[in-house]
Amino acid sequence: MDANNRTARVAGLLYLLTVVTGIFSLIVVPSRVDAHGDAAMAVTNIVSNELIFRLGIASGALGYVAFLILPLALYKLLSSVNRDMAVLMVALAVACVPIYFVALANQMDILSLVDGDKYKQLFTPDQLRERVMLLMDAYNHKVFVSEIFWGLWLLPFGYLVFKSGFLPKVLGILLMMGCFSYLISYFAQIVFPHATIPSFVMLPATFGEIGICLWLLIVGVRKPKHAVG
After folding, report:
1. CB 126 within 8 Å of CB 137
2. For residues 75 and 145, what is the distance between their CA atoms, to the nearest angstrom?
3. C-alpha dihedral sign at 90, 150, 135, 112
4. Distances in Å between the alpha carbon of 71 and those of 107, 115, 120, 147?
5. What b/e sequence results for 106-134 when a residue is b if at least 16 CB atoms lie within 10 Å of its CB, and e otherwise?
6. 176-179: long-range contacts, CB 8 A cutoff, minimum separation 24
7. How far is residue 85's CA from residue 179's CA, in Å, rounded to a whole number?
8. pTM of this prediction?
9. What is the mean pLDDT of each run of 10 residues along the chain (229 residues)?
């Protein structure tokens, strides 16, 4: 139990790091630089908030390194419940990591364009702004694709939590529902690009992920009431 509690708290810490850096890089930074399709304003916002933009890249990289290690810690904790589901959980989680790091390269390319004299000499201001917008779209599209895997890995993860006997079943249910929250959000935006996705759609994922993060970090694991079959 002591070893499992240590593993649970490591996983909780990694999860918390993933959540905090994700909020900063995926919510706070875009709120400072998003220009809603205005190329000139986008370049102005990035230049005037360059430190925030760079911190967003750094926090994104840190968060995804943590997210790469997180499923391995969870595998150590939950593989005894069902090894095949644990392997599936790890595979679906890590699948989005290379996609996101390619997206980070797009952000670094943006910095090269707006911060390098070489490119200012090669391109007119309008051409430079167009390239910045293309790279911003490329970044956003890759992050959007990652959303599929943000959802898919929660299904085996939630199942393992539910069946474990040493973690709350309600959190397992919320995590499994959270899988469909992400998938509904993703496919709704693909099929109905101008529709507004109701905020309640993402509530199971939000409560499930934050709940399991805090439970692992603060509570750890409890003694199973019965052996896992």
Report:
1. no
2. 24
3. negative
4. 26, 37, 43, 16
5. bbebbbebbeeeebeeeeeeeebbebbbe
6. 177/204, 177/205, 177/208, 178/151, 178/154, 178/204, 178/205, 178/206, 178/208, 178/209, 179/151, 179/152, 179/153, 179/154, 179/155, 179/205
7. 15
8. 0.89
9. 88 96 93 81 88 95 96 96 96 95 94 79 83 92 94 97 95 97 93 86 95 94 61
**Is 54 buried (19+), middle (13-18) or exposed (0-12) by CB count in 10 A?**
middle
DSSP 199: G
| Count of other CB atoms within 10 angstroms of residue 22 | 17
pLDDT at res. 105 = 95
**CB neighbourhood size of 31 (10 A):** 9
Q: What phi-psi label fits residue 34: left (phi over 0), alpha (psi between -120 and 50 degrees) or beta? A: beta
